[in-house]
Every structure is written in structure tokens, then in C-alpha cells.
Amino acid sequence: MMIMPDEEKLSSYLNKSKLISNANYEKKIRMAILGGFTLNGLEETMRVKCDEKKIQCTTYVSGYNQYNQEILDEKSQLYKFSPDIAFLIIDSRNIFGELLLNPYSLSVEERKQFVQNKSDEIINLVKTLVKKSNSKLILSNFSIPSYSPIGINETKEEFGLHDMVRNLNQNIKIGLRSEPEIFIYDLNSFVSKFGENNVFNYKQFFYGDIRISLDYIPYLAEELMGYVTAVLGLIKKCIVLDLDNTLWGGIVGEDGFEGIKLGNDPIGRAYAEFQYNLLALNQRGILLAINSKNNFDDAIQIIKEHPNMILKEDNFACVRINWNDKVGNMKEISDELNIGLDSMVFVDDDPVNIEYVRSNIPEVVSIQMPADNCHNNSSHLKSIASLFHVLKITDEDKARNKMYLEQKKRTEFKTQVGNLEDFLKQLNISVSIKIADDFTIPRISQLTLKTNQFNLTTRRYQEADIRKFSQDSKKIVGCAQIIDKFGDNGITGAYIVNKDNEQQWTIDTFLLSCRVIGRGVEYGILSHIIEKARRDGISQVRGEYIKTEKNQPAENFFVDFGFKKEGGFWIFNTKDQFKKPEHLVIS
Amino acid sequence: MTKTLFEIISRVMNIPTEKISDSSGPDSIPEWDSFNMFVLLDEIEKEFDVKFSLEETLEIKTVGDFRKKLEGKNK
Questions:
Q1: How many of the other CB atoms lie within 10 Å of CB of B17?
Q2: Are A77 and A42 within one domain?
Q3: CATH code (residue A189)
Q4: Domain residue limits at A280
Q5: B57 touches chain A (CB under 8 A)
Q6: Which residues make Cβ contacts (< 8 Å) with residue B44, sequence separation at least 6?
Q7: Which domain holds residue B24?
Q8: Which residue in A14, A206, A230, B21 has its CB near the most CB atoms, within 10 A?
Q9: What is the CATH number for A263?
Q10: Strands (DSSP E) along A294-391, which ranges?
């Protein structure tokens, strides 16, 4: 049995798609679906899935097998529609044609040449689309057939059929990997996950050129949604875990240190494997936290001392082991880590806890992993991987766990020092301001997509936007790296300034990652901008505060600095004095 | 059987069961295009645990055809 959250039937999505109201959600996306074969139902399913995630989705579906013409013709409906994201779903029949059925009618050299030509064609085609539009493009790769007409000799054959498809996949990967707007969807893995004999159904194929059978369209849509949420920055950042019967088998309070199951028996191996999968996610930047009803000393002893614990104390950015309410603990974890509840996933074996968290904090994705099915925990975790998709894993992501541990030390230090002013002075904060370059552009874009709290305008910009702005002489795109005695916070501040004219600059974007809020660095960055304006002979700098549900922490920023409200803008006259924060070194 | 069949048709074709009769087909049901016909076929196969061959599929033009084919298979 495939261990997946069961998808609904395609017909159920088709019906739901008729009921979508034109809700005006904050998140919007324009989606194009270009198919090399019949993909009916995919568009409807994507719209329903978007609606469930409160994304307003407008779609365009290309004519049947018209993708080539639509991409090449600048005046096509595709470009008129102007998508934010385009899915190009084609398969090996589109590329190989009848050759797929009889590949050995060509010689080895001809086969190599064929694949080379086709690879170049596809690469050029998709590059054309992103050049002619502002869209991200998701191209599916090709499923390697299981059958070969030469049977068991396939694996001996030089550049055989399977090699041809494999090589095509490899060529498009290498040819497109450095294109920031193009991503390859691994359709080959999709087919192997569900099985070629299930996904491809001859009857449906002959009947209506359906090459991904109807049952699997909802699963395909679910995987493609991972790109939609990544483009929109709707990303889960933290997995909050229960302990007993979630990270290990048994209950520490009853079974004791030696009695819990971890590592050595079949049940224990399931939990160890689950921990390994969590560790790998943690190392790529997903935070882990604990929310467990337990005696702190009993549970922490297992984490610190149990020989088979894969996750160590340092893998957890925040720990709540107590007898308090789990909802209260969730809120505390969200506060301590400074990430929204809607960025959190909660995992527990107990249906009561899951239901309790789900009904009180619906924005948390709560997942039950029942103890009597603990062998499924790892596949369950893998099946929700799309919640964590980001378009690019940056250095900041990889170092995130370390940064949160440093943050823990900072909080402890703050409690020791007691007084905020002394604490800030003793932190030895240095703010290093940099103009956007190739290394920082991806991170600046990521910050605009992800930062919700200290963000004055919440304008979301893709990497290509930031790159364009950074080359514009009428704009300044900058970022700030913040370092203190406990470590390097990385690039955690960003701003975009428009040089309106000889007298005036406007702050288009100003944001600070939640990790560094509350240390006065925002005043340091703003004073840097004001000083630069002063040096350039600019008389006033203005900015906006666009209120959202989440950016209350930035509400009083301009007034506190000394800006005056005039109409919709906050204005600062560069002749006026301002108090530069003394506890920072700005460079 | 007829009741279940009509319910599936109603759901897939998005019309009330009262409006379905043996003579219903692409002419009287606006949503009955070749794709929805196939979705319908897929659901009926699953619900009644039967399989239609490609040839049988192509012979089905109306609700009545569906009913007759199903009766034939359930004997």
C-alpha cells in the first residue's frame, strides 16, 4: 500500500472547482498550464488546492499540444495572459515519437545525436519562454520506461533506450540548473513512486490521449502545488514534535530510560529512521522544536544520554517539556523562535492533542502519526515534503539551526544581564551594510518573500526583480549582515530605495528578519540610508507603512526615528538631527 | 443499481438526478463532453467493480447504454 494522505477523486475536484467563490485573497497567482497531451482536470484541481490554501488563482490552459507554437509566438494567448508561473508538462512520446517504440531502428551514433538535438531544442524552448515573460517555468522531466524491446540486454547496450531518456534528463538538468527562473519537476520520480502501470493506462491513452491517468491527476497537482507555495513564500519553517510515541516508542514516565523503544528492535528502528529523516530536514534549514507533556528531567535525560537518539539537544531550537497546555506551548514556541504559527507543523501520536491544536490554532498544520502505525512515520513525513519547498536553499537556510542556538544563548544572556540597554551594549553588535550583488540577490529576494513582521511595505520580489533593481541607477538595493558576540546572524536586513529625483528618495522596501528584531539594528540601517541621502544632497527621504495582519512590530518605526506624517507618507528632512544608535558599529 | 448510477452521473455531470433518464446523453446534458464521459466511466468502473473495454466504451452514447452494459456485466 502506498502510504500517502489519500487524495480525493478527480471528479470531486472537478465539482469543487465549480463552487470556488471569487474570494479576494491576499495571495494571488497567475498560472499557465502547457501540456503535450490531455491534462484535463489538472487546472481545476490546482484551482481547488489554491483556494484551500487561500490563494487566488487565475489560470490559462494552452491548446492541446500547442505548447511549441504558444511559446515561440510572442503574440500568443500565453504571453497575453502573462503568467507568474507556467507548468510545461510533456512526456517522452512528445519528444521521441515512434522512436520510443522502436529505438533500435537507429544506430548508437544516431541515437546520441538525436538526444543531443532534442535536449538543445527543449532547453532553447524553455529559455525562450522565460525571456519573453516574467514567469517562472516548471518543466517536467521524462519518465524512464521500464520496458525495453531488447529485454535483459538493455543494461548491456551502449546508449540504449533507457540511456537515451536518462541522458535527456541529465542534459536538461545541466543545461538549465543555473537559470534562476526555470525549475525541473521530477516527473520520472513521480512515475516511479506510483508505478508506471498505474500512472499510464492504455485505455485512457487510446481513448483521449490521457498519459497521466485520472486517478493520479490530484497527486500530480499536489506535487505541483509545492512550486506555487514556494513562489508565494508560503513555507513551513518549523516542525514541532511530541516525544513519547512520536520520537521514540513507549512512554518515558512509565517505561523508563531503558524501557523506551529506540533503535534496537523493529519498533525502535522505525523511530530511529524517523529521527534520521528529521535530522536531514533540520540540516537543510527546517527548525525542530519539542512540545511534550512530560517530566522535564525524565525526557531531557533521554535526549541527552540515550545512546540511540539520532537527534541531539542542539537540533532543537526550542524545547517545551512540561505539563502545560499544548496550545499555550505552541504559542510560546512561536514567540520564542519569532516565526508565525502559520509557519509551523505539529506532529503528535495522540488524536486528542491533534484535534485540540487543530481547532484552536487552525493555521498550524497538525499531523497525527499514530503509534500503532509508527512504521509509516517516515513515509508520512516524506509525503508532506512539499510544505517545506523553497525555490533555492541559501547558505542562511543551512546555517539556520546554528543561528537559533546562538539566539537561545542570547536570550539566556539577556536574562542574566537584566537591563535591556546594558544587554544591547554588551552584545557588541556590528551591522555590515552591503550593496546587492550576485551572492546576496537570492537572499534579498527570499527575505522580501518570507518576512512578514518587521516589514514596512511587504512588497514581494522574485530574484529576477531584485536583479533588475540592482542594475537600475535610479534604485539602491542593499542588505545588512548582523554579527554579535554570539555569532553571525547572516544577512537579516534588506532595503530598496527609489531615487525619485534630485531632492527626494523613497523607501520602497525596508525589512528585518524576525531573528534580529529588538536590537535597534533597524535604526542603524535607516541612519545609514539617511546619511547616504545627505551626502548625495537629497533634502528629504520618505517612506510608507502599509499595514498588514502581521507587521505591527514595524508600525511605529518611522515616528520613533523622527519621520513626520504627511498624507500617505512618512517624511524625514535630511537636515534634521537624529539619534544614531550608540550600541552598534555600522560599516 | 439505477439509483447509484444516476447519483454518480449527477455528481460528475453536475445535474440533479431528476433530470436524468435513459435517453440522457451529450445532447441533453451540457457537461457531457468526451472528458467528463471518461471521468464518469472511471467512477462507474470503480463503484460497480467492473471494467469496460475500449470497444464497449465507444459504444456508450447515453445513460441507457451505460445501464444496459452494467446489467450485462452483473449477470
A1: 13
A2: yes
A3: 3.40.50.1110
A4: 238-388
A5: yes
A6: B5, B8, B50, B66, B70
A7: 2-73
A8: A14
A9: 3.40.50.1000
A10: 316-322, 344-348, 365-368
Distance CA B38, CA B57 (A): 9
A191 and A58 together in one domain? yes
Q: Please check whether residues A196 and A63 belong to one and the same domain.
A: yes
Q: Which of B33, B42, B44 to mutate to test the interface with A (most CBs of A within 10 A)?
A: B42
Question: What CATH number is associated with residue B48?
Answer: 1.10.1200.10
| Structural domain total, chain B | 1
Helix, strand, coil shares, percent, chain B, to 5: 65, 0, 35
- Whether the CB-CB separation of A223 and A185 falls below 8 Å is answered with yes
Cell numbers at residue A128, please?
525562450
Residue A281 sits in the same domain as residue A149:
no
Of A181, A202, A232, the last residue of a domain is A232
> Is the pLDDT score of A71 beyond 50?
yes
Same domain (yes/no): A37, A145? yes
Do residue A210 and residue B38 have CB atoms under 8 angstroms apart? yes
Range from A142-146, A565-569, B35-39, B64-68 that averages highest in pLDDT: A142-146
Do A327 and A409 share a domain, yes or no? no
Considering chain A, what is the average pLDDT of its residues? 93
Helix, strand, coil percentages for chain A (3-state, nearest 5): 50, 20, 30
Selected for mutation to probe chain B from A6, A18, A203, A216 (highest B CB count within 10 Å) is A203
**Quick one: which of A181, A191, A219 has its CA closest to A88?**
A181
What single-letter amino acid sits at A518? G
Domain count, chain A: 3
pTM of the entire predicted model: 0.80
pLDDT (tens digit, 9 = 90+) per residue, A463-505? 999 999 999 999 999 999 999 888 888 899 999 999 999 999 9
Nearest Cα to Cα of residue A166 among A196, A192, A195, A143: A143
All three cell numbers of A424:
544591547
Domain boundary among A340, A359, A388: A388
Q: What does A225-254 look like in DSSP terms, one character per residue? A: HHHHHHHHT----EEEE--BTTTBBS-HHH
The answer as to whether A479 is a domain residue is yes
* Cβ–Cβ below 8 Å for B54 and A206: yes
Joined grid coordinates for residue A489: 546572524
Q: Is the dihedral of CA A396, A506, A459, A137 positive or negative?
A: negative
Average pLDDT over residues A543-567: 92
The continuous run of DSSP H or E covering A435 comes out as strand A429-435
Q: What is the C-alpha to C-alpha distance for residues A505 and A478, in angstroms, rounded to an integer?
A: 14
Q: Which residues of B touch A41 (CB under 8 A)?
A: 35, 39
How far does A203 lie from chain B, in Å, by closest CA? 6
Beta-bridge partner residues of A512: A454, A493
In this structure, the number of other CB atoms found within 10 A of the CB of residue A150 comes to 13
